[in-house]
């Protein structure tokens, strides 16, 4: 009977994979072990569960963008994680993989005018709801990142953006859902949605950068960097800026 006396001599945590290097102190042989610490796949159901997430909530310019993704039951990818934890290069590599292998996915942009009308929280949720309604097949359950409810206490916001029909409101109200704090780092479908929301929104900001290059949206993506706020002070606002956000000159002195 073989007996091993193993001792860990080195390890590496790379994204969601743990690499361990052991040495058998009896034989002096090295043993390399790879352990996948993958995101969990399902929360409420085991099939047709969609994850949804948004990007651009804290920006001064550009849309809030939401994505919804239904992944197949056998989907695995060792690099998939919350988009904020990934490099731009990794996100761009993951996007076509998610698009090609997803059972269904959808992306929705809600413009600054709508954000100003219904506020950024309602706009973020509404963008997720619009994305859910685009999915085919219809999901059996919904999980979203954060602690905001998928259906607000006051009911679905049916102004600004798409005006939902009674049938669509019934669909949204009927699907079981759960809000999960840090869900984009816990569940694959939410992580996949975060990648699509981020990359699609980045593409959008790159396009409108060509129209107003002085704000450098290609670099800052509409976030309140010092450069962006100073450009607003110098050139004023555009149709892509959110007028209900803190944009006044005296407020631009704040380091955000």
UniProtKB/TrEMBL annotation:
It catalyses: Endonucleolytic cleavage to 5'-phosphomonoester. It is found in: Cytoplasm. One of its GO terms (cellular component) is cytoplasm. Pfam families: RNase_HII. Its main location: cytoplasm. GO terms for biological process: DNA replication, removal of RNA primer; mismatch repair. A divalent metal cation binds at residues 53-54, 145. Residues 47-256 form the RNase H type-2 domain. It comes from the Bacteria. Keywords: Cytoplasm, Endonuclease, Hydrolase, Manganese, Metal-binding, Nuclease. The keyword Ribonucleoprotein does not apply. One of its GO terms (molecular function) is RNA-DNA hybrid ribonuclease activity. Its cofactor is Mn(2+); Mg(2+). InterPro entries: RNase_HII (IPR022898), RNase_HII/HIII (IPR001352), RNase_HII/HIII_dom (IPR024567), RNaseH-like_sf (IPR012337), RNaseH_sf (IPR036397). Its EC number is 3.1.26.4. Endonuclease that specifically degrades the RNA of RNA-DNA hybrids. Belongs to the RNase HII family. NCBIfam families: PRK00015.1-3. This is Ribonuclease HII. It comes from Flavobacterium urumqiense. The lineage of its organism: Bacteria, Pseudomonadati, Bacteroidota, Flavobacteriia, Flavobacteriales. The gene is rnhB.
